[in-house]
């Protein structure tokens, strides 16, 4: 018997959802609903200083207004809870204990200024300064993962096609638990996104991940962690971001309000869904209104272009 597909959307309650967020949520929801799968809402509130409960509630209300629903989540419960990352720290700690890690006291400024540090596609590659135990004894320490010798990853993205990265060459050993600077008025310790998302996707049985193309570079690191922790790797799809008619990243200059502003302003959600669907190649240019439910029968991920989509509301 084939296991039921499971997908998720995982917003961070640090701000209002914009139309780019809405497009990704719609695509990930359609991908699962078109296959008769289970859809999970997970709140990624790892940042204790920026995450707000009020924003979480607003985001969920906005997504429901758009026509999306979910089978499991912080507001509806389910067998794989809790569904807020802030309530799952013990799972992350247990995973961390099974990995080869070391303390690192390098500051971001030091890493930026390291003349010998190579640079990958995402910025400076960690040069391994603290790998041999030579960290500063009086500084708060982050926890880095010592990468395995073979850190080359290749995977088939369902939208972008074949993807690959040598994580050692492009990233280096990366942080799994950020240092606690609260004693000096700084940020408290915080679990890194890479570890938390891998642990949660594994524990929740997620089989399909569709997210924005801006998160593509995280995928090789997450696949390496999945291998190290003995977790299955979901199928990944990274949707290109949306742009305005001028080809630049969508923002308020294009008259693109956030979802809450649209909802509270009395906008027809079907008009918003139609604009999102047009930008993703799901409907023709003449479609002015459509519900999320109406898009399910004909949804095909192959329709989503690899290039950024132009969104005109």
Automatic annotation (TrEMBL):
GO biological process, one term: tRNA modification
Top-level EC class: ligase
Cellular component per GO, a single term: cytosol
Keyword Aminoacyl-tRNA synthetase carried by entry: yes
UniProt xrefs under InterPro entries: aa-tRNA-synth_I_CS, Glu-Q_tRNA(Asp)_Synthase, Glu/Gln-tRNA-synth, Glu/Gln-tRNA-synth_Ib_cat-dom, GluQ/Sye, Rossmann-like_a/b/a_fold
Keywords of the record: Aminoacyl-tRNA synthetase, ATP-binding, Ligase, Metal-binding, Nucleotide-binding, Protein biosynthesis, Zinc
Residue ranges annotated as motif 'KMSKS' region: 249-253
Cofactor: how bound: Binds 1 zinc ion per subunit.
Domain of life per record: Bacteria
EC number: 6.1.1.-
Residues annotated as binding ATP: 252
Cofactor: Zn(2+)
Binding of Zn(2+), residues: 104, 106, 126, 130
Domain Glutamyl/glutaminyl-tRNA synthetase class Ib catalytic per the UniProt entry, residue ranges: 5-302
Binding site for L-glutamate: 8-12, 44, 193, 211
Protein's UniProt keywords contain Ion transport: no
Motif 'HIGH' region, chain ranges: 11-21
MF (Gene Ontology): ATP binding; glutamate-tRNA ligase activity; zinc ion binding
Record-stated family: Belongs to the class-I aminoacyl-tRNA synthetase family. GluQ subfamily.
Role, per record: Catalyzes the tRNA-independent activation of glutamate in presence of ATP and the subsequent transfer of glutamate onto a tRNA(Asp). Glutamate is transferred on the 2-amino-5-(4,5-dihydroxy-2-cyclopenten-1-yl) moiety of the queuosine in the wobble position of the QUC anticodon.
Protein name as it appears in the record: Glutamyl-Q tRNA(Asp) synthetase
Species: Plesiocystis pacifica SIR-1
């Amino acid at each position: 018997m084939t296991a039921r597909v499971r997908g998720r959307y995982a917003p961070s309650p640090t701000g209002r959802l914009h139309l780019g967020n809405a497009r990704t949520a719609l695509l990930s929801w359609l991908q699962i609903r078109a296959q008769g799968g289970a859809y999970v809402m997970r709140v990624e509130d790892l940042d204790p200083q920026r995450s707000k409960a009020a924003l979480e509630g607003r985001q969920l209300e906005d997504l429901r207004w758009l026509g999306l629903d979910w089978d499991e989540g912080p507001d509806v419960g389910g067998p794989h809870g809790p569904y807020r990352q802030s309530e799952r720290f013990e799972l992350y700690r247990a995973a961390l204990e099974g990995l080869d890690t070391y303390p690192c006291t390098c500051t971001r400024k030091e890493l930026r200024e390291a003349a010998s540090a190579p640079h990958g596609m995402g910025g400076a590659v960690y040069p391994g300064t603290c790998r041999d135990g030579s960290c500063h004894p009086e500084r708060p320490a982050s926890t880095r993962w010592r990468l395995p010798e073979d850190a080359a990853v290749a995977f088939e993205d369902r939208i972008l096609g074949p993807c690959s990265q040598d994580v050692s060459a492009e990233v280096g050993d990366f942080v799994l638990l950020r240092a606690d600077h609260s004693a000096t008025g700084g940020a408290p310790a915080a679990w890194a996104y890479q570890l938390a998302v891998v642990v949660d996707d594994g524990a929740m049985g997620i089989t399909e991940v569709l997210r924005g193309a801006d998160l593509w570079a995280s995928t090789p690191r997450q696949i390496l962690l999945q291998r190290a922790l003995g977790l299955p790797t979901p199928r990944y799809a990274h949707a290109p971001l949306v742009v305005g008619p001028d080809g630049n990243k969508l923002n308020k200059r294009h008259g693109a309000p956030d979802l809450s502003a649209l909802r509270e302003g009395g906008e027809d959600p079907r008009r918003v869904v139609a604009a999102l669907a047009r930008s993703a190649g799901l409907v023709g240019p003449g479609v002015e209104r459509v519900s999320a439910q109406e898009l399910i029968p004909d949804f095909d991920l192959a329709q989503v272009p690899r290039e950024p989509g132009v969104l005109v509301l």
